Prior knowledge:
This protein is an alpha/beta fold and about 160 residues long. The protein has helices spanning about 15-25, 35-40, 40-50, 60-70, 85-95, 125-135, and strands at about 1-10, 30, 55-60, 80, 100-105, 115, 120, 140, 150.
Amino acid sequence: MIKLTRIDDRLVHGQVAMTWTPALGADCLLVANDKAATDEFLKMTLGLAKPASAKLLIKTLADAIIFLNDPRGQNMKILVLVNSVKDAAALAAGVSEIKSINFGGIRTREGTHSIAKALAVTDDDIAIIRDLLAKGIELEVRQVPTDNKTPIETLI
Length: 156
């Protein structure tokens, strides 16, 4: 069962390990990222950041979609982590269980504009966000579980 799908360009870090994982009762962190799935050094660093109470799986987007649609994973409490709006949209298109996406953090980079604290998006991201909203997927901004949900449509 997916407890949360989160966009965070840092993927696994202290905020995820120390606040989100226990708040959700997650026992599995699933990083869905093509680069991380093939980069041994990145895998090692993500593994160092994971909480001891949860298993860490790092899969390509395609393999993550297969995993999340496999009924054998329904007993797990999964926190799904992606690092981009594009990857979140790909997961939502392939996994019908994803009805809500949390925007946690996307750092400023060339071509982005800030729409909230720790959240910078491109014009392409905004087009994808509008498409996801049109499909009825809840898109909310929260850094930590105790923050109030801010609907992303109020920020773009």
